[in-house]
Structures are given as C-alpha cells and as structure tokens.
TrEMBL record:
Coiled-coil boundaries: none
GO cellular component, one term: SCF ubiquitin ligase complex
GO biological process per UniProt: SCF-dependent proteasomal ubiquitin-dependent protein catabolic process
Lineage top rank: taxon: Eukaryota
Record-given protein name: F-box domain-containing protein
Organism from which the protein derives: Absidia glauca
Lineage of source species: Eukaryota, Fungi, Fungi incertae sedis, Mucoromycota, Mucoromycotina
C-alpha cells in the first residue's frame, strides 16, 4: 500500500521524519530507501560523537557521498586518511573544517577538488593553508559558486613567523575577478596593506569583510578599500589602530553610500555604527 503513494506525498512524509525514523523507514523497502537516502546523508551528524563518526567513515562510499550537501567534521576525530576518503562529495554546498590544523594540504585539496563546482561556503578557521589550497579556493570563487570563505586565525605556509605578511597572490589573480561575497580574515596577523589592496582589486563583489585584530593594517588602506569596493555592506575593523572611535567610523561610512555597518573598538570595547 505504501509503495503506491504519490512521490510528492512520500517526499512530504520524509520531510517530517527525524533522522532515526528515516533510518528505520529506509530499511522497510526499496522505494522508501530511495526517497530517504538523500535526506539521510544530506548533513551527517559527526560532531561530538566518536561512535557515529567511526561508523560513517567505515561505511561511507562514493554512492552515498554524492548526497552530502553540508559537511562539518570533528577536529578531534578526523584524520587525513578519512578526509581523503571523501572524494565522492561532488555535491557539497558547505564545508566546515575548522580547527583542523593537522590536516595535510593533499587531503584538503582532494576534497576541494571534488566539490569545486558545487561548494558555496567554506570554513577553515584556525587551520594551516598551503599555496595550492589557496589556488583552489580562488578557482572555486572565480569560476564556480563559492561565495563565503572563513579564513579567520589561519596560518599560510610556508611562513617565517606568525606575522609574516601574506598577500593571497595564489588565491587572488589580478584581472580575474572573483564572485566572493563574504570573507573573514579576523585574527590573521599576516594581513597587511598589500593584502587589503589585492582584496580590493580582485574581489570587487565583496559585501561582508571581517578584519578584526588585523593589526598590521593602516587606516589609509582601510579607507581605500571602503572607497573602491562598490558592493560592500558591512566591515569589521575592531581592534585595528586608527579606527578606534565613532568619528573615524562615521568618516568611513561617508566614503561609500552602500556601506551600512562598521564594527570597531572604542575605549577597548567592541561596538558598531550603522547608517541611519
């Protein structure tokens, strides 16, 4: 009887099910299995559950990986070998590999290459990035769908020290505009004025830019960025010398009519100013 239900009704029923219910229903017959499979694997719950994590990587296959849309891994559990297994994730929309300092460039690049044409948002917070990985991120934002990138508190390798400047030359190519809308470089001590200049020239569609604690930036570079990024809507320049009171924040707002909000530090306290 259940096999004769319209596909639309089956889909509606699947929308109302919890994940455990879906697992049970999928085991009843082939029809329900086919309808539940994409939902079962769309966003694997791998955080804070070692048993579930191990089971997933024990049984994962290219066939099931194609249904994964949102992937967030547990940094304390994921290994390079496991990440390298995920080359079947060709439909990923979001990828969160935050706090995975131990992940090798080869393992990361395999996943980035696999999801290159579909990925829309990537979080690599507190990670170590190679030039080859930056090049892949740039390619995804120029030619495909990558619109949001979080590189906060990352280290670019190789580097002489934690604050050795890096200008994202591998990711941003002059004359080849990126469609990236959101970029977070907070706590990246390698960001300097040249980095910001490259961002201004190579990422013309940026709407949200976070530069919190990027202490090598000058107020002149920030002003130039605000003037030239025609789509910019919000900027976070908290804890940056030179942008430390409402007067400076209002001056930035006056430079670009599309800029709606500035986050900055005033008297050691984070605050924000919005356009009225």
């Amino acid at each position: 009887m259940m096999d004769r239900l319209p596909a639309e009704l089956i889909d509606r029923i699947a929308q109302e099910l919890t994940l455990p219910d879906m697992y049970h229903l999928a085991s009843t017959n082939r029809l329900w299995y086919q309808h539940c499979l994409p939902r079962m694997y769309a966003s694997p719950p791998l955080i804070n559950n070692e048993r579930r994590h191990d089971l997933f990587f024990k049984h994962t296959s290219h066939r099931t990986q194609q249904y994964i849309r949102h992937l967030r891994v547990d940094s304390s559990l994921i290994t390079n070998e496991q990440l390298g297994q995920l080359i079947g994730c060709t439909g990923l929309a979001t990828l969160d590999l935050s706090y995975c300092k131990h992940i090798s460039p080869d393992s990361l690049n395999k996943v980035l290459t696999s999801c290159m044409t579909s990925i829309q948002r990537i979080c690599l917070v507190d990670g170590k990035l190679a030039q080859s990985s930056l090049a892949l991120l740039g390619h995804a934002s120029r030619y495909f769908k990558l619109r949001s990138l979080d590189l906060s508190n990352t280290m670019i390798c190789p580097c002489g020290s934690i604050d050795t400047p890096h200008h994202l030359d591998s990711m941003i190519i002059t004359g080849a505009s990126s469609a990236l809308h959101e970029l977070d470089l907070s706590y990246c001590s390698w960001v300097d004025d040249t980095t910001l200049s490259n961002i201004t020239l190579g990422l013309p569609l940026l709407k949200f830019l976070r530069l919190r604690f990027c202490h090598q930036l000058s107020d002149l570079a920030i002003k130039g960025m605000v003037q030239h990024l025609k789509q910019i809507s919000a900027v976070d320049v908290a804890h940056i010398p030179g942008i430390d009171d409402p007067v400076h924040a209002r001056a930035l707002l006056a430079l670009n009519p599309l800029l709606e909000e500035i986050s900055f530090t005033h008297q050691f306290k984070p605050t924000s100013l919005s356009r009225r």
